[in-house]
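Let us work through a complete example step by step.
Step 1: write down the sequence.
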Amino acid sequence: MEDSTTALESRMNPVVAIWRQPLVQAFFNDPITIISAAFLLLVVLAAIFAPIVVPHDPKDQQLPLRHLSPFSSGTATDYTVSPPVKEGRFFILGTDHLGRDYLSRLIFGGRISLAVGVLGVLFSSSIGVSLGLVAGYFRGTVDDIIMRVVDVFMSVPLLLLALMIIFILGPSFTNILIVFALARWMLFCRVTRGMVMSLREQAFIDAAKALGCTDQRIIFRHILP
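Step 2: predict the structure and record it as tokens.
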């Protein structure tokens, strides 16, 4: 009776269903996990709102304040040189060899790292999932060709592939995304292919074919979700 009541509550309230998941309960019962997640969220928010939260311009060069140690500030003698140093400057992580604030540059650098990570996964997963769907569903010659391409890419060292692309196309944000996409799409392709080959033999796929559904509809309506 208690189990049926719990199942009924879960169906009626999605929040209850999510909260009763063992993984969710384990997450909220572990203080270290909560602290780590809060710190990660803080880093992500700082990277997203970098122009608002940074204390200084990351490109601002102040040679009189170069190589400052953490938690340092400009002294009175710094304001008499040219170019003049703004009063009240405080550097939590210190400065580099050009007098640029480490913390500001670190936060702005986090924006690039976050964008590369998110967009790189999106691009590589889009390529891998698409090819995996085609290979797993149609099989035969199409599957053999795609899998041989996957084997070729997986046999090339990642560092060598990255250096080759950067050397040919030049260093840029877009080219880094291309490197990420070409380096990881094979993993998504293999996993997707295996799952599609398993789902392809299910009864609901045979029923969809019997109803006259096209291959495109079966792939994107019944298998992909």
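Step 3: interpret the result. Residues 53-100 form one domain.
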